[in-house]
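Section handout 9: paired folding examples.
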Amino acid sequence: AALDPKNGKITMISISRDTMCELDVLDEAGSHVGTANAQLALAYTYGDGGDTSCALSAAAVSRLLYGLEIPVYASIYMNGITELVDAVGGVTVTPDVSFGVFTAGQQTLLTGSRTEQYIRYREYTTEGNNQRMQRQNQVLVALVRQMLTSVKQNPASALTLYNNVSRNVTTNLNTSKILYLAQQAARLSFDGEIRNVAGTSVLGAENHAEYQVDEQALYELILDVFYDPVTE
């Protein structure tokens, strides 16, 4: 998520967990032993499941985005997602395809276990994670809209939401920074879209899905979101 006070907007960017990128590799003692080109999701597994994992993930994303600084991170366990959705009264989504208890084209209110069912289901194909990401993005957009509405009415509501899920969250933000960012976000607009890093899903040498990023499209995305053109 990029907060841009100068241009008055919030931009959200989604990066596939299968994205091939350069990761830091740690040994069992936690010492840095080198780097590897692998799926982004593996960056988290080289850490401790907490702050180290988050920092490794942030470093991998930073490299992918041409050295762009990632100053804030947060990870949330699946139980925390369910708690967050329930804390805002549920979110309404419209599935693109039918699976489980969900019917394509039929609006559904997600609460409780239905939230996890919706965002966790994945077909085991090269496109399976991309399809799951689209469902996760639906939930995120609905969450952001409802939270922004709440924060605009009362910035302190961000702390209430955080307290509801904090036991399932790892972040380098303290409560004062959360409140500050919530106040900033309340002044900005969100267009309701999540920008996806473009690329192609292929089957790797070990039959694992690999997402090959379109470097030109990524470069243009970074310029568009994080830079202003210079006019002469």
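Moving on to protein 2 of 2.
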Amino acid sequence: MNKNVKKLDIEEVKKRIDNGLLIVRKHPILDLNIYNYTHKTQYERLWDPYTRMCRGLIVDGQDNILNNPFPKFYNLGETEETMIQNLPCELPSITEKLDGILGILYDEGDNVAISTRGSFDSPYAEWATNWLRLQGFGIDDFKMGYTYLFEIIYPENKIIVNYGNRAELVLLAVRNNNGDEELDHIKEAEELGLSYAKEFSAGDGNDKMEDALKYLEKFKGTEAEGFVCRYSNGLRLKIKSVDYKRMHKILIGLSAKDIWATLRDVGTIEHFLEDVPDEFYDWIKKIESEVTSSKNNIMNRSAKIAEEAKKLGSRIEQA
């Protein structure tokens, strides 16, 4: 499953770790490392091929890439390449976007295991690993040289979408470890007896997109997150429903006052970014900029008033 000859350019990665753009965590037992981008990278949009690639990338002690998940991908219209006018002139593959935690299958020596995007032993990774092993899966059930990616869904992991008592790993994709080929995830899931991310209509014309949009119109609030489009050149983009984004904002309880109070008390809003979807980063940055600008204006005005007061004759007049 983990055979690969591609090496990670570790010197380039170390530069980004030193600059606070990437973080590495070691496996508790094995000689494995998992690389992930930091809040700073996401918040300041410091994306490059390395920060995008390190999104749960698993590497061995010799810097061989063993598991290569999706690189960072964006919302429709979020970047130049995801603007509607710049999309490839073809109908993409369109699948539902599930609302759980990304799980990355890897070889744990004599057994299979699941990591999350930034940890080998997070509670979600432990739950997913236990679930997979209880189903009786082993190393030989999965194709060597490929990374299997799952959505981890179980009741205690509910984010916005309410899946009821559903508790399982849902196959999202099967990518080769060089990141330049994907297998049919539906076929692979059926062979394994696993659930998979639903694909929308395979009809001609715009049936796929129409079905996907109807899917979002049908569900409200906590019933659907959105869908993912994948083009033949490897481009992926996500489209989230308005209701999902609204509910997520309510859930995390963000307000301009919260951001102001955090900047006042802590000096940074990094902890806000743990659970904030990409759609809110621009809004948070706008509020942070406005609050900082307002503070600076007050400080400057206060300094001028203090200088003027010094010219007055008595302390009473200065006060």
